[in-house]
Amino acid sequence: MGLLSDPVRRRALARLVLRLNAPLCVLSYLAGIAWFLALAFPPLTQRTYMSENAMGSTMVEEQFAGGDRARVFARDFAVHRRKSGALPVAWLERTMRSVGLEVYTQSFSRKLPFPDETHERYMVSGINVYGILRAPRAASTESLVLTVPCGSDSTNSQAVGLLLALAAHFRGQIYWAKDIIFLVTEHDLLGTEAWLEAYHDVNVTGMQSSPLQGRAGAIQAAVALELNSDVVTSLDVAVEGLNGQLPNLDLLNLFQTFCQKGGLLCTLQGKLQPQDWASIDGPLQSVQTLLLMVLQQASGRPHGPHGLFLRYRVEALTLRGINSFRQYKYDLVAVGNRDCPTPGRALEGMFRKLNHLLERLHQSFFFYLLPALSRFVSIGLYMPAAGFLLLVLGLKALELWMQLHEAGVGPEEAGGISGSSPPLPLTQGVGLASLVAPLLISQAVGLALYVLPVLGQHVATQHFPVTEAEAVVLTLLAICAAGLALPHNTHRVANPQAPDRGWMALKLVALIYLALQLACTTLTNFSLGFLLAATMVPAAALVKPSGPRCPLGSWPAVCCSRGAPGSSACSAWHLLTFLVRLLGSRSEAPAASALGGEPWMDTWDMELARADLAQPQVHTPTLAISAHRGPELCLRR
Amino acid sequence: MELKKTFNVLYPPCPDYTGNSRSAEARTSKGWGGAGLEEAGQASREKKKKKKKKNRAALRHSPRPSRCRKLKPASMVDSCFVSQGLTALAAFLLFPFDSLAASQIEDQAEQFFRSGHTNNWAVLVCTSRFWFNYRHVANTLSVYRSVKRLGIPDSHIVLMLADDMACNPRNPKPATVFSHKNMELNVYGDDVEVDYRSYEVTVENFLRLLTGRIPSSTPRSKRLLSDDRSNILIYMTGHGGNGFLKFQDSEEITNIELADAFEQMWQKRRYNELLFIIDTCQGASMYERFYSPNIMALASSQVGEDSLSHQPDPAIGVHLMDRYTFYVLEFLEEINPASQMNMNDLFQVCPKSLCVSTPGHRTDLFQRDPKNVLITDFFGSVRKVEITTETISLQPDSRIMESSYKEDQMDEELMEPLKYAEQLPVAQIIHQKPKLKDWHPPGGFILGLWALIIMVFFKTYGIKHMKFIF
C-alpha cells in the first residue's frame, strides 16, 4: 500500500518499470510461447482418468459379432445408393424396420449462400432417416445417438452397414435404460444440423425442415461414425466442435479405454500415440499432435458431424476409420471371431457404458488440450501461456500510462528532466474525449466487416462478374482498405503542445481494448485466442508513429483497436482455415469442405461467437445466441 | 438416581418387560440382584477411573456396566420376576446343588443359557443408490439371505434398500441380484420383503427406527420392536469416509450420531446385545465412538483404508459384491442353526490377503468372551431345545419367594408421586470435559481503565478538543 501511495517510491517504481519494460515484454512473450510448447511435456500433461463413477471401468462384455452382417448391409446400401443416386431412403426405412426399430424420416431443404461447386445449385434438399430403439424397461426420458452422415462424396456405406448391424444387435439386448437413436443424415452436416434443430425445436440457420414425428428423451451423448472402406487400419477420434467447443473429457476417456481394452489402434489428429514418454520422441510427437489440435480448434469448424451436437449441450465425438497405417492392418469391420478387436465391439462397449450413465457427463474437464489420446492439459495449466502473452499488452499499456502520467501530473518531475512540457491539467480530458471519434469509427468499420460481406454478396454478384465466394472476400478487402482510408479524426488527437501525448493515449486505450478482447476469446476458445495473441501482440506492442506527422503515425494503433472486434477474427479465421485445409489434406480431407454451405455456416456461427464477445449489443441474433450460450458456459466451468 | 426416575416415568417397566421372561438366572448370575445406591455410585466412579486408564480389558470382565445397575435397581428389576417357560426351568436348574451331577447339569445349563437373549432382530441397510452401486444391494441381500436362512423371520428383519437393482432397466437379468460371478448365487431369492426402500432410506428414518421414535401410524413391518432380551444384528453398507456413512448422495450419518443412537437404544432397553457390521471405506471409524455396553462391532477396513469390490461380472457390467461381505457370505453359507462357530471365527473372515483392506473388530464394550458367542446368537433365531434323560428335581427357590416379597414392596414404591428428571447429563455420558472459560478481566476494571484514559486525555488536551473526538 505504501509502495503506491508514497509519491517518491511510486516515482522510483515508475522509473523501474519504464527502464525494464522492453526486456520484461520480450521475456513475457517468450515465456508465453515457451509455456505453450512445454504443454506437451509430462509435467504439464497429465494422464487422463475416468471421473464418472457410472462408467468406472470397461467391465462390460462385448458380444457384437455382426461383422459379416455389417458388410452385407454396407454392400446393399452401396448398391441401392448407386441405383438411386441419393440416399436410399426406402431401403433404409425397410431395413431399419426389419431390424426392429421405430423408423421416421425428416425432409429438409436449405438455400446455400454459395452455389454447390459440383452441381451448380443453390437449393439443397435431402431426407434424414432415423430409427429409435426403445429401451424396453425404462421411460423414454433419455437417449443416445449413433449417427452416420452421408455426403455426396463420402458415401460412408461401411458406417451405415455397421450402424444397422449394431442396431440389430442392440435390439436383442434387454438392458437398455436409454433409447438409442440410429440416425443417417444426408448432405453431411446440413442434414445433421437440420435434424438437431428439429429435435430441439429451434431454427438458427434458416433451415426448412419437416417436424420430427418420433422423439426420444434428452440426448445424453452422441457418436458419429465415418467408415469408408471394409479395411481400416485405425480409428481416428475427432473432438473439436463448432467454435472450438469440446465434449466432456470423460467421453474421450471412454473411447480410449475401449481402444486399450480391445487392442484397437486409435489415433488422434491422424497421429499414432507416442509410446515412449521418457525419451524426446514421445513429447515431440505430442507437440505435433497438440499443434494440430490447436489449429483445428482455432478454425472454429467442427471436425466432424459431432461438432454440431456440442452446441446443444450433447457430448459427442466422431470416430473415423483411417486406412493409412498399412503396417497395422486389421480387417476391422468384418471380423467375426470373438478375440479380434472391431470398432463394432468398441462401439457396443461405449454404448453399454453410456447406458449406465445416470446424469449428463459433467464430472470431467470441458476445457482441455490433447497432446495424446491418453494425456491431456487442463485449463489451469494452459491458460498461463496466453496470460504471459497478454501480460505484454498490460506492461506496454502500463508504460504508456506512466509516461502520460509523468508528463501531465508530475510537473516538477517532468520539468526537472525535460523542462519542455508545461503542466496542462486540461489536456488529459481533452485527449480522452478526442479518442472517442477514432474509436467509434474503427468500431463501425469492424461492424461493417462483420455484416456487409455477407449482406452484400448478392449485390456484388449482380453488378460485377464475380462468384459469391469471391464477392465475400473482395468485399472484405474493400472494406479493409476503405477503413484505413477513412478519416479517423486523428488530427484532433495530435496535440501541438504535447505531440506524443495523443498517440500515446490512443495506443493505451487500444492496447487495453485488445487485451480484453483477446482474454475473452482465450477463455472460450483457447486455441483461437492464443494464436491471435501470438501474432497480434508483437505488432500491437511495437507499432509506433515513426515520422514527425502524428496523424498518419497513429493509424496502426487505430487498426489495432479496430482489429480486435471484427477484422482480425475474420482475417485470422480465413488464414487459419487455409492453413488447416492445407494440413487437412495430409490424411483425409474434411468431408464437409466440398459442400459450399458449411464453411459459410461455420463462418456465420463463428462470427456470432466472436460478436457476442465483442459487440453484444449490436446484433439481435447474437443476443439470442449469447443468452443461449450463457448458462451453458456457466455449467461448463 | 435421576436416571432411574426418568426411566420409571418414561418407560414404566410393566407390562412389556415382564412378559419377556427375563430369567432369574441371568440376573442373579450377573449380580444384578441387590445393587444398592452406594454400589452404583462406587461402580460408576470405578468405571470413570478405568476409562481414564483405558483399561478396557478390565471393563470387559466387569459383569455389567454400572449404568445398568443404576437403571435397574432391585425394586424395579424384581417386578419382572415372573419367570415362565424354559427360562424358569433354567432358574431352577442353576441353583447350587450339592451333588456332582447337579453341578454338571448346572454347567450344561449355563452353556445352554449363555447368551441370555430370547429373540433376534436384524436391521440390514444399504445406503447407496444407482446402478453402479449394485454391489451394495447385493451385500445387504446376501446378509438378508443368511439371516433368513438361519431362522430370523421377515417380521424380525428390517431391510432397507436404497435402490431397486433387480428391476433396474440396466439389469440384463431382471428380478435377480447375483452375488457370485456367472450367476451362481441369486441373493434376491424368491421372496424379499423390503421394508424401507429408495427414498425412504434416510438418516432420519434409520435413527427413528433404531430408537423407536416412530409416528404411531408407522406399520409394524417398519418398526424395530425389540426389547431388552433382543439380540440385534445391524449391518450397513454404502459409501463412507472417516467417521461417516453416506446415505443416498444427499446426507450422511456420523459415527457420533450412530453411537448416540445406540446409547439411546440401550437406555430405552431396546437390546440385550448388539452386533454391528459395516462394510464401507474406513469402516472402523464408524464404531470407534461407540460407548454403550454390549456392542460388538466389525468393519471391513481400518481408518485410512478403502474397502474394495469383488466379483466383476462383464455380463451384468458391474461389480457384484464387496470383498468383505463376499467372504462373510461364504462363511455364513457354512453355518447351520446347530453349528458351534463363534465370533472369533467371524473375526478371522477375510484376512488382508483376500480383502486387501484390513477388517477390524471391537469387543471391549461386549461383556462376554467372543469365543462363547455363537454366530447363531446374532445371525439366527435359534430356539434352544435340549432333551435330557436325567430327572431334575425342581425345588422352589427362596429367592423366588424373596422376589415376590419385593414385588409387593415395589408396588408400594410405585405409590410415590413420580417426578421428571433433570436433563440428561450428556457431557458426563460421553465423557467430555467441560470447556474451560478463558480468563477475562472483571468488567469494572475495564470500565475504570477507560475512565482513566478519557480523564488523561482531557487533562492533556482540554475540553475544547471534544469536537475532534465526536
Automatic annotation (TrEMBL), chain A:
Its main location: endoplasmic reticulum. It is found in: Endoplasmic reticulum membrane. GO terms for cellular component: GPI-anchor transamidase complex. It is a multi-pass membrane protein. Pathway: Glycolipid biosynthesis; glycosylphosphatidylinositol-anchor biosynthesis. Signal peptide: none annotated. InterPro entries: Gaa1. Keywords: Disulfide bond, Endoplasmic reticulum, Glycoprotein, GPI-anchor biosynthesis, Membrane, Transmembrane, Transmembrane helix. One of its GO terms (biological process) is attachment of GPI anchor to protein. Coiled coil: none annotated. The chain crosses the membrane at residues 20-41, 365-393, 430-451, 471-490. It comes from the Eukaryota. Heteropentamer. Part of the GPI-anchor transamidase complex, consisting of PIGK, PIGT, PIGS, PIGU and GAA1. Interacts with PIGK. Component of the glycosylphosphatidylinositol-anchor (GPI-anchor) transamidase (GPI-T) complex that catalyzes the formation of the linkage between a proprotein and a GPI-anchor and participates in GPI anchored protein biosynthesis. Binds GPI-anchor. This is GPI-anchor transamidase component GPAA1.
Automatic annotation (TrEMBL), chain B:
Residues 1-68 are annotated as: Disordered. Pfam families: Peptidase_C13 (PF01650). One of its GO terms (biological process) is proteolysis. It is found in: Endoplasmic reticulum membrane. One of its GO terms (molecular function) is GPI-anchor transamidase activity. GO terms for cellular component: GPI-anchor transamidase complex. The keyword Cell membrane does not apply. InterPro entries: GPI_transamidase, Peptidase_C13. Pathway: Glycolipid biosynthesis; glycosylphosphatidylinositol-anchor biosynthesis. The active site is at residues 239, 281. Its main location: endoplasmic reticulum. It is a single-pass type I membrane protein. The keyword Membrane applies. The chain crosses the membrane at residues 439-458. Keywords: GPI-anchor biosynthesis, Membrane, Signal, Transmembrane, Transmembrane helix. Residues 46-68 have a biased composition (Basic residues). It comes from the Eukaryota. Heteropentamer. Part of the GPI-anchor transamidase complex, consisting of PIGK, PIGT, PIGS, PIGU and GAA1. Interacts with GPAA1. Interacts with PIGT; this interaction, via a disulfide link, stabilizes the expression of GAA1 and PIGK and links them to PIGS. Belongs to the peptidase C13 family. This is GPI-anchor transamidase. It comes from Camelus ferus. The lineage of its organism: Eukaryota, Metazoa, Chordata, Craniata, Vertebrata.
